[in-house]
Every structure is written in C-alpha cells, then in structure tokens.
C-alpha cells in the first residue's frame, strides 16, 4: 500500500477516535452558567428542563470504546501499511498465482503463523480430513448409497461445479453437459467420473467447412440429424452418409460415439451445443473446443471421490 493511502487511512481512523475524545470532553463541560441540577429556564407543557450531566455509565462506556479502538489499531492491521504489533493477517497478501498461494498457505500452517485463513484451513483439515479419508476407501457405487456422503458431495459440487453445470446439475447449452441423464461423453462409471474430475477433459471437434464446403456441410448435417430420427431431406442425408466416413473415425460408423475419445453419440438426440439445424451446422463449420478443468489440485483426490459419488448418484 502506498504512503498516500497509509496516511489517508490513518488520519481518518485516528482522527475519528480523537474527535470522539474532544466531543466527549466538550459535552461533559458545564458551559451553561447554570449549576448542575438547577432548572435551565425552559418549560413545555409542565415539563421543566434541568441541567443534568449524561449518565456516568454511558460516559465510562464511551471512554472504554475509545481506548479499545486505539488499542485495536495498534494490535491489528488498520492503519494502512502498518501490520500491527501482533502480526495478524486475514490471508496472504500480494499472491499472484494459485501455486504461490498454496505454497504460502502450507508454509503458514507449518510455521503456525497468525494468518486467519491458514488457521481456519488447519482446523478444517484436522476435523474433516479423516472423514474424507474414510469415504475414499469405499467404492463410489457403494458410497452412493450413503445419504450423508451424497449430501457432503452435493455441497462440494455446489461450491465448485454449479457455476457451469447449474445447481441442479442439468448443465446448459454451450458445452456444459447435463449430469442427470446418464449420457456420458467419457463414461459414467464411478471411476470414470472421478478420472474426469481429477484430470479434467479437453474435447476437440475440428471444423469441416474447408474440407466439405457449404453444400457438403448441409449434407452431413442432414445425415447427422437423421441418425436421431429427425425429419430431414432424404437426398441430402443420402449424400451426407458418404461424407460421414470422415466423421466415423471419432463418432463410429453407426454414429454412436466413442467414450475413449469423448466423441458424442449422435443417435440419442442429446446435443451439447444445441440440436437445431443451425447449431449443428455451426458445429461442423467451425468445430468446438470444450474444456473441463482439472480439480486435483483444487480439491484433492479424497474430496473428488465424494463429489464423484454425488454426480454418480444423480443418474443412478
């Protein structure tokens, strides 16, 4: 923090306490010329104003709050760049990367630094790590029968996965799969789901406009839509079937996809980027590049095991 902001914050913080001090001194001084307890000469509806001081307990509390405020500013960070003589921090400051943050966090935990975030992480690990370790020893398919474990996985899912897949896990158009329909690009077993969460996925669908041309794209689109029982132009679909040989390398001759490659099944009418003729044409023209981030470093394998359990339970 620059010296300007340090001075700015310090003046406002200390100025407020000093201002309260002088305000209290002024209100305690009797500048009315009337003795305490005597009438002030004001009367309204039979009520006479007396020259009374504020209650002593109120005054004492005011003194205490001012002393407490000043001591707090000295002990904790509150005056700009000044860190306080206790050395307390809410979290590591000036971190520029996730790796650096993790490194500093582990260092603070090992050294017992008075870092609020590090202390909370340490307490959480001591309390919850044994629970996750116990869950990790149980196969996902079996753990999915444990309602408590599933609810733990759900909370982790909402914190880390709902941004893309939605709070109901039904996904959204644009490359975020529905996790409740038992349609899986890379496989829906417990271990496959866990593998996806640990390592992430990157699916690449190349664009075919240069290879097929606009007419060829129209033909392949018609054939691809016909695989799921859609009404299409029969002539276009027939011509597209021959061109589909180039697509069969990933999607299979029958168009049912290949989970080893993450190539989707084109026969079930479930479309990751939309199943309209326009959306499928756009996919074939320009391709798609979907990325599922890896969560190994973010959650760790034990927590991922529980998240995978929740995801598995949604479609089973």
- Over all CA atoms, what is the radius of gyration? 34 Å
Q: What is the H-and-E element order?
A: HEEHHHHHHHEHHHHEHH
Total E-strand runs: 4
Name given to the CATH architecture of the largest domain? Orthogonal Bundle
**SSE-based structural type:** mainly alpha
CATH topology of the largest domain: Cytochrome Bc1 Complex, Chain D, domain 2
* Residues in helices, as a percent range: 40-55%
Strand content: 5-15%
Oligomeric category: single chain
Q: Name the poorly predicted regions.
A: none
Helices, by number, come to 14
Please characterize this protein's 3D structure:
Heme c 1 binds at residues 161, 164-165, 292. GO terms for molecular function: electron transfer activity; heme binding; iron ion binding; oxidoreductase activity. This protein has three domains: 1-24 and 50-88; 138-200 and 294-314, Cytochrome c-like domain (Cytochrome Bc1 Complex, Chain D, domain 2); 202-292, Cytochrome Bc1 Complex, Chain D, domain 2. It is built from 14 helices and four strands. The protein has helices at residues 3-28, 56-75, 98-111, 116-136, 140-143, 147-160, 162-165, 190-199, 209-226, 234-243, 248-251, 277-286, 296-299, 301-314, and strands at residues 39-44, 47-50, 201-205, 288-292. A two-stranded antiparallel sheet has the order 1-2. It has a two-stranded antiparallel sheet with strand order 3-4. A hairpin with a 2-residue loop joins strand 1 (39-44) and strand 2 (47-50). Helix 3 (98-111) crosses helix 4 (116-136), helix 4 (116-136) crosses helix 14 (301-314) and helix 8 packs across helix 14 (301-314). The mean pLDDT is 91.
